[in-house]
Amino acid sequence: xxxxxxxxxxxxxxxxxxxxxxxxxxxxxxxxxxxxxxxxxxxxxxxxxxxxxxxxxxxxxxxxxxxxxxxxxxxxxxxxxxxxxxxxxxxxxxxxxxxxxxxxxxxxxxxxxxxxxxxxxxxxxxxxxxxxxxxxxxxxxxxxxxxxxxxxxxxxxxxxxxxxxxxxxxxxxxxxxxxxxxxxxxxxxxxxxxxxxxxxxxxxxxxxxxxxxxxxxxxxxxxxxxxxxxxxxxxxxxxxxxxxxxxxxxxxxxxxxxxxxxxxxxxxxxxxxxxxxxxxxxxxxxxxxxxxxxxxxxxxxxxxxxxxxxxxxxxxxxxxxxxxxxxxxxxxxxxxxxxxxxxxxxxxxxxxxxxxxxxxxxxxxxxxxxxxxxxxxxxxxxxxxxxxxxxxxxxxxxxxxxxxxxxxxxxxxxxxxxxxxxxxxxxxxxxxxxxxxxxxxxxxxxxxxxxxxxxxxxxxxxxxxxxxxxxxxxxxxxxxxxxxxxxxxxxxxxxxxxxxxxxxxxxxxxxxxxxxxxxxxxxxxxxxxxxxxxxxxxxxxxxxxxxxxxxxxxxxxxxxxxxxxxxxxxxxxxxxxxxxxxxxxxxxxxxxxxxxxxxxxxxxxxxxxxxxxxxxxxxxxxxxxxxxxxxxxxxxxxxxxxx
Amino acid sequence: xxxxxxxxxxxxxxxxxxxxxxxxxxxxxxxxxxxxxxxxxxxxxxxxxxxxxxxxxxxxxxxxxxxxxxxxxxxxxxxxxxxxxxxxxxxxxxxxxxxxxxxxxxxxxxxxxxxxxxxxxxxxxxxxxxxxxxxxxxxxxxxxxxxxxxxxxxxxxxxxxxxxxxxxxxxxxxxxxxxxxxxxxxxxxxxxxxxxxxxxxxxxxxxxxxxxxxxxxxxxxxxxxxxxxxxxxxxxxxxxxxxxxxxxxxxxxxxxxxxxxxxxxxxxxxxxxxxxxxxxxxxxxxxxxxxxxxxxxxxxxxxxxxxxxxxxxxxxxxxxxxxxxxxxxxxxxxxxxxxxxxxxxxxxxxxxxxxxxxxxxxxxxxxxxxxxxxxxxxxxxxxxxxxxxxxxxxxxxxxxxxxxxxxxxxxxxxxxxxxxxxxxxxxxxxxxxxxxxxxxxxxxxxxxxxxxxxxxxxxxxxxxxxxxxxxxxxxxxxxxxxxxxxxxxxxxxxxxxxxxxxxxxxxxxxxxxxxxxxxxxxxxxxxxxxxxxxxxxxxxxxxxxxxxxxxxxxxxxxxxxxxxxxxxxxxxxxxxxxxxxxxxxxxxxxxxxxxxxxxxxxxxxxxxxxxxxxxxxxxxxxxxxxxxxxxxxxxxxxxxxxx
Lengths: 643, 643
Known about the structure:
The structure is a homodimer.
Chain A: E1 34-35, E2 38-41, H1 44-67, H2 70-79, H3 92-106, H4 115-129, H5 138-143, H6 157-175, H7 179-195, H8 201-204, H9 216-227, H10 230-242, H11 279-296, H12 299-315, H13 347-364, H14 367-381, E3 399-400, H15 424-434, E4 440-443, E5 446-449, E6 455-458, E7 464-469, E8 476-483, E9 490-495, E10 503-506, E11 513-517, E12 520-525, E13 532-537, E14 541-544, E15 556-561, E16 564-569, E17 582-584, E18 591-595, E19 602-611, E20 617-624, E21 636-637, E22 639-641
Parallel strand pairs in A: 5-9
Antiparallel strand pairs in A: 1-4, 2-6, 3-21, 4-5, 6-7, 7-8, 8-13, 9-12, 10-13, 11-12, 14-15, 15-16, 15-22, 16-20, 16-21, 17-19, 18-19, 19-20
Helix pairs in contact in A: 1-3, 1-15, 2-4, 3-4, 3-6, 3-15, 6-7, 6-9, 7-10, 9-10, 9-11, 10-11, 11-12, 11-13, 13-14
């Protein structure tokens, strides 16, 4: 029996760009920055959340998948017998996403004993389910073999293939094992023969098809990166450009939905003026288009990406970074249609937004993208997983009323062990498992810190730093340069978050060239190993006014501190105080106080409100939004009316 | 060939309570009031809209139904051959609702030549489609005979039967013809044998079933009223009380919807704390429960109805009277969840609200119900049909942004000739056709005017009045008593709308006992025929503040005048003014001016706003909300930020 214990150091095949996380660039020249070659989070805020992910969330995955029937579906496909279990044709993707998460995790903190063996067990189940021609989707293998490739709008076949490919790439990149990669390559080759730009006669009749749910595009670019096979890059480009010509059905509900915009099939991405339709579909598509651009340097695609990102970030993003305002169709709303109560803001959409924005950050080198990544990570993403790592939120509203009525179902404002549509939990797992790779980047001339997390980060050009910080609770970040070119100047770049009005920096020598460049604070000098930079970001409590065009929160303020958005929850207020009947006194004193005993340790903000009934003051206590919904089922609000 | 010209005077069988409209009470003793025996709108605002309904909307119905395939479905069922056309199993209900509308119309203003013949043609089509056992729903007859009565959650079989019954009652009540009534009685008897309290052995297995869409309950009570057959009243009660015990599926989408509350199967109506779930389903159920209470005097049902009505009117109703805030599930939202932009406020829900409230008005004699009827009729209902009577709105939002994106589909903010789900148009037709019967009521001691519409109204106890008014443009209402008991005092009651802060009344004699009683102005005296009362309601422009608990419109004001809610539309503002970037100057002068040339003749309100960009003033012109969406596709808003 082979030794399944993960190697203590990564042993995957190191390409020239070497990242052990997502996005191992093949064509760095098209990009301003490239991912860090190594990235480890070793302490602080995110290490704690990642530890829970590694020790609770990921290990409980296989049991959840067994209970929900996903693994039985794989066995049924392998045996050619049995019934399909689950509400959706894309049940397999939950398994694939879990495999991706566990694979990233194996490269880092292995988690409890046995995770590697569980990974190989599930890899074997997936491999055994594959048909001889490479096909693999249990819904069509087990339940509807007659309909294979005939329901592209709702069948999710290419979508599931995409998640399989991403899992396979992660598995290969972090463990060096080929079993799952071989499965993915076989399936991708089969898909290329049917849907690719150079189709065989078999595929000729189908070559116009695209999947109702984008996802395979970003995956195929990663498969190209991992294998070097150009045909996968070409297929990704082909599928991206085929979308937007009305090939899919007119929408999921002819009476009610916005038609082909639901799956972004209304306009080619290069011409689309704004993000629209189903948010996760839109954002996976855009992440894939960014991947394409990163490898090809396609200028018109880049222009569209920048335009669409500005449309999203400027008009369709919640304060929490959440996106996709509408329950109906899980979709982006109109510009500035951002209701706090009926915010959909699906956890998966926040993840997709982070994936896309990170690609844009590397492509352009601009800090705005990592500003949004930070806002999303600390708020609208992290709210999706409970502090115990074992319960989830599918939707992430910014307000729950005192008299909230519905507390059941996937979309209840209540943390839930699993969902009938379980897309979010393994998606959270894979982002947390790969999170170190979103912190830093490198270029020929230096290293850039996009996020502040205790750990060590190195570029593929010889730079390395160690970061120590109690961020986001404290604003001090200490960066030690562990390695830098001995013979020339080298630049350490620190992102100054857009929320930060004031900061100080102590560099090794007051003669150092320290300059602000966009959102970057750049320190350029000849470094000696061990030299340190201390950045202090002022963490004043902020009362944030909404854009006046966001009608739904007019006359309200939100409490923020550092990257954290705060909320009021009933549990923290005086007994009997209704959050629907209190207003913030805007000039009242605000106090930030760390409470190690509360919600895993949070800094709370206290201030004063006024009861609408009789005008009497009431103390108000706000907690970080990401930690909401852990106590009773009371009211919650991010946006608070001003007195 | 029989003479199909409608009789110039009603010839239907006159029961003791005699109304030629909906709700011919059999047990008036349980009710504070009873419908007028005769009711005719002969001039003014509603006469114009009803004329368009009679001369355009209703006559074009059969062609629309032919084009959409509804009539072909009936022929296919009759012939036992052919395909089913349409997206929904309830296509037949569009035909039934049209027949009901046309039947009410025939009692009143016959409309263009040939309407009566068209009615008889469609009646024959419906009758021919009926199976020998009484069954009639073409979807299950033509497309899915194997599934009859097996998909009660989504099949709409009892729902369609309900609309058939209502059409049959209207047809019989206004024309005296029995063809359709016989069809309905046969179907209802068949249903009673399967679902009734005393089921045959055939029905035993099915007797626990209820329909996913309430509607048959109110219809069965009317069938009881029309035929005197007690079993139909009992069946209505039985079906009402069976609901709320989780008999239906867990919701239409297990992953996402609120479960059985969608179809009000989560709690028995008698125990429900609030209106919830699909709005039309909820309101048809409540209208039926009100019908039951009106005939049985059931005290606990009445208590529940009053509680639920207060929950709706006080916490879940838009300023326009629209109800059902959510697109997702076409459902009521939480209390005070009333977004203006994503307001669903389906036209059908407004109609159902009027139907229910009118029953409550008769049951209780309280004016609050007719206050809401008035608000709904003039605003959230009337917006559903275009001024030309030939285009429709399915949803009735209170805001459309300048950069609104989606302009297609049933739910676009754009008047549309017909819908793939065409529930609303014939529903509008039937309410407008029967509208005179919502104006007045009677009791042993007098006549009550609930609405102000030029016309003549008589009780079944010998009272009769003629009303003349230019309402809602002018506040003067002249009521002439044409008949009243010669030998005793008799009371003319005039509803003083809750919006009205000031009024004067000129009664025939200053000694008359004129007293305010709740919202009623009661004038009690010995009347001589021809004596007149002149009521003057002050129609000042009002700037209405929202309830502070409605988060979505905080910091805004709405313009109202009389019963009309106003809105700003781009078309009436200075060129280039964006409605998203202007605020109302609250102390600016407002001017109301009648513009006979505009939108069929409307009183506009002009005032002044302030541009957010540079603070400069801008003239603003508001038009009645019901008339919106008749010019360009610009922005619209009811709630306007205050400067």
